[in-house]
Amino acid sequence: MTHCQSVGRSVHLVNLDPAAEHFEYKPSIDIRDLITLEDVVEELQYGPNGGLVYCLEYLVNNIDWLEDQISSFEDDYLIIDCPGQIELYTHFPIMKNIVSTLSRMGYRTCGVYLLDSQFVQDVSKYFSGVMSAMSAMIQLEIPHINVMSKMDLLGDRANSYELERYFDPDPALLMEDANKDTSPKLHALNRALVQLIEEFNMVSFIPLNIHDEDSVTTVLSHIDNAIQYGEDVEPKEPKDMEDGEEDDDVIDY
């Protein structure tokens, strides 16, 4: 949000997480104005996971609410913060239905999957992250960017050559590491996972350090390219010079 505002981009935060409590920026649209996880758990006696699914299904069943809310920002850039529960992207059609609604309204969407950089310290966790990202990509069927977040937490290792194989997965090398840390009984499973990753060849990661302006710019440029942001906008005609002052030529996105 800060970066977008600094470059003069009109951007709004949309919160679709009914369990969210703290925001660095106030959402312009908030699902909690429609339904909250706290109310569902209290009134229906659902657990946290079941309650979250119920809230998102409720949103889909009342999708006109979201359409009305979003229509107020039809010319703006929207960052939609979604729940992190992976089942919503791999087991249920909930998020796919929401994406379809956005597409029907004329919005170009890009999925951004965030994988914590700490996963590279455990190859088994990294494999699970790659598989989850791939499942979401297949399910949503939209332009998709995978981001390895919190790179600043890796310290000096963040710039090491060793991490390159995690950004663009080298399954053969990663399988060697996984086999070192797992029982021989699981080596066949590791091999099957590697084969699956190689066959689809879909997942790669862009590193993100939110404290590095260049890193943020790189990620945003990939997203802009995925949705072809601004490519269909014609330059505005310069206003007539008034009072002896010249107006700059601008492209208004």
Task: Describe the 3D structure.
Small GTPase required for proper nuclear import of RNA polymerase II and III (RNAPII and RNAPIII). May act at an RNAP assembly step prior to nuclear import. Residues 242-253 have a biased composition (Acidic residues). One of its GO terms (biological process) is protein import into nucleus. Residues 231-253 are annotated as: Disordered. InterPro entries: Gpn, Gpn3, P-loop_NTPase. This protein is mainly alpha-helical. The protein has two domains: 1-107, P-loop containing nucleotide triphosphate hydrolases (Rossmann fold); 110-230, no CATH class. The chain has helices spanning 2-6, 37-44, 48-61, 63-70, 87-90, 94-104, 123-140, 164-167, 171-181, 187-200, 213-227, and strands spanning 11-15, 29-30, 77-81, 111-116, 144-149, 206-207. Helix 2 (37-44) crosses helix 3 (48-61) and helix 9 (171-181) packs antiparallel against helix 10. It is globular and about 55 Å long. Residues 238-253 have low confidence and may be disordered.
